[in-house]
Amino acid sequence: LKEMNARSVWHPMAHPADSHANPPTIVTGASGVRIKDVDGHEVVDGVGGLWNVNLGFSCQPIKDAIAAQLDALPYYSIFRGTTNDKVIQLSEELRTFFEPDGLTRAFYTSGGSDSVETALRLARQYHKIRGDTGRVKFLSLKKGYHGTHMGGASVNGNANFRTQYEPLLPGCYHIPAPYTYRNPFNETDPQRLAQLCLQALEDEIAFQGAGTIAAMIMEPILGAGGVIPPHPSFMPGVRDICTRNGILLIADEVITAFGRTGSWSGSRHWGVQPDFMCTAKAITNGYFPFGAVMIAEQVAETFEQDASGKAAIGHGYTYSGHPVGAAAALACLAETQRLNVPENATARGEQLHQGLLALQAKHDAIGDVRGGHGLMCAMELVSDRETKSPIDKKTIATVQEVAYHNGAMVRVSGPNIILSPPLVLTREDALVILDALDAGLAAITG
Ligand code: PMP
């Protein structure tokens, strides 16, 4: 299998030749919060699939819903003229679920990148409907990750994901992120740093001209960029600046929606109502590729009350509102609420965060520990704590590998080790992850 994989599979986010030198783990099974590989190892999944398997791998109600839907209606499009019962039921449930966020309509997609693309397009269209045709630019945060479509890549805050694919969408500008460990202001106080980043946002808007900007897109807590929670004043500050300048706020909650932050959404976590919210990932717990862009009431009304014809939507996917995906999402939403996952996410998140801080006291390689907002934590590894020089790829890969052989799968993203386990993790599972990391770190420090 390893040879065939190297010969025939190109992996996302990896060098195509890498599978020869470093054969990937071949996962052949999973149950609860554990995955099994072809060599017989069974480990706690500290990654939660890819931030999406919030309820673990054995969610019977979702499996039953998918099986029943495959019998009833495996596919039909919801392009103009047809719909299906499951997508209607799901939309009503999502409307209730996201009502506190001010979001009342759903536009369906096949995943996170599609959700981002949808929100960017609808944001431009919103301004066109209002006759504000100059508003075409987008703002986003450095270190933000917004998927890999041309639009999403353009607003991506990490240049490594952009440069190979340029020219991208013109008119995209990236604002410093409230990242206390490293920032251009050398500011370590989270509140003062939030203020400086907000000022940078104001300055960029003034420089570009407010009337040229369609939307600001941001993750409530930066995820793939290394789990960077901002000071609580930051996202409300962004909301305020956007509102004052007629700029729409797109919350990219592909990771944070549905409980991961310890709140039902990342926007709610910070007390903010966005104009669009991109969701995907945990919406079906990984059982089906699916996503939804939730739309604020006032944006929806602008589209729905337009008489000029400009609001007709020239955008959508074959699998928008897929009935099997909708059935999976309905069952997933019910189970997510029944289990009240934010509560456990908060408790286990706190345990992991404290555990990582204890590891930092023991291992010099840990430069920074981030967490404290549900089950998304990270540690940033350095080769020297004083100079903060990033750890090299080979050393961090060793930490990951040794952790795996000590019972836990963890994710490496640049110099960071990221933890985003299922939200149903137990105290014992969390201890397995921490002990495995301890072993991994011990292996590089001798
Ligand atoms: N936005 C965010 C915040 C994400 O974390 C991701 C995926 N990690 C995406 C968008 C893209 O989602 P997908 O990989 O499902 O296209």
Automatic annotation (TrEMBL):
PANTHER family for this protein: AMINOTRANSFERASE, AMINOTRANSFERASE CLASS-III
Family annotation (Pfam families): Aminotran_3
Family to which this protein belongs: Belongs to the class-III pyridoxal-phosphate-dependent aminotransferase family.
PROSITE patterns listed in its UniProt record: AA_TRANSFER_CLASS_3 (PS00600)
Cofactor (UniProt): pyridoxal 5'-phosphate
Domain of life: Bacteria
GO molecular function: transaminase activity
Protein's UniProt keywords contain Ubl conjugation: no
Keyword Cytoplasm included in the entry's annotation: no
Keywords, sorted A to Z: Aminotransferase, Pyridoxal phosphate, Transferase
Protein name as catalogued: Aspartate aminotransferase family protein
